[in-house]
Design brief:
This protein is of the alpha+beta class and 336 residues long. The protein contains ten helices and 19 strands. The strands form five sheets. A six-stranded mixed β-sheet has the order 3-2-1-9-10-19, with helices on both faces.
Amino acid sequence: MGIDLGTANTLVYVSGKGIVLQEPSVVAIDQEDKVPLAVGEDAKKMLGRTPGNVVALRPLRDGVIADFDTAELMLKHFIQRVHEGRTGLIAPRIVIGIPSGVTGVERRAVMEAASQAGARDVYLIDEPVAAAIGAGLPVAEPTGNMIIDIGGGTTEVAVLSLQGTVLSESVRVAGDELSEAILNYMKKVHNLVIGERTAEEIKIMIGSAYPMDDDDDAGMDVRGLHLLSGLPRTVTVKGPEIREAMAEPLSVIIEAVKRTLERTPPELAADIIDRGIMLAGGGALLKGLDTLISHETGIVVHVAADPLSCVVLGTGRVLENFKQLERVFSGRSRNF
C-alpha cells in the first residue's frame, strides 16, 4: 500500500488496483468522548462550522504530523476503509511519501503512526523522488531531472539522478500560505474577514501567478464578515488583486528554485536545460505558475499529467518494482 500523507489531502494506492482513496486530511472529533465523528471529505465540510463540543482538525501542518493521536486515527480509518470487504492482507507493507526536509523526530512520528495504525513494514520515501517517479521522469538513469513539488504545506525542489537525490530544498511555503495571503489581503484591503475554505475557493477560481490575457477581467463575489460594521457583506474581487496578494509567498518558492539551480553541478544543469523542469503537486494547478517559473529561470517548465496524484503514483510504482527501486527509500521500520 502506498500513501501520500499530505497536509491538504491523503491519497492511498493499492498494488494492482491503483488509487483507491483520495480524501482531505481532516478529522472531526467530539471533544467530550474524544471519538472521531467524521474523517476526510465529511470532516472538511465541517471546517469552521462546528459547535463548541466538536472540533475539525487538520493533523498535518507543513507536511509533518502536528497532532500525533489525530493523525494515527486518520491513518487507521483510511487503512480500514481500503481493506473493507477484503480478506488476506491484514497488516500491509506501507510506503509513505514525506517531505525531504523533515527532521529525524518527524520521520519517526510518521513511522510510529503508520505502525500503530496496523502496518507490517513501513518504508519512507522523499516526496520529490516519489513525485518524479509518479510523473514518469527517468530517475534510474544517470541524467539530471529537476522536480518542483508544491503541496499544501511544503514546496520541495530537488535535482535527481541515478535513483537518488543530488540536492534538494524544502520550504514550508505552499498552497496553505497562498490561501492565507488571500485571507490577509481581504482583511487588510477590503476589511472583510473570510474563512480558509473561501480563501481556497478564490485561489482556485480566479487566482493566477502570471498575467493571463483571458482571465484578468474575471471577478468573483466574496462573502464574509465586514470588520467595521460587524455585519455580513459581499465584495467583488478581480484576478490581478489576488495575484498581487499571492506575490510574496510565490517569490519565496521562486527563490528556492533559483537557489537549487545555483548549487546544481554543471553536467546535471546541462541536462535540466535540455529536459526542462517538472512541476507536480496541487500547487502546480495554479494558473500561470509554470509560465512564472519559466520566465524567472529561463528554463522550460512542464506540468505533470496528473499533478495531484504524482506522489502516490510514485509510491505505487516503487511497491510494484520493489527490487529495482529499493535504493530510493529514506527510512524504514519493521513490526514483525
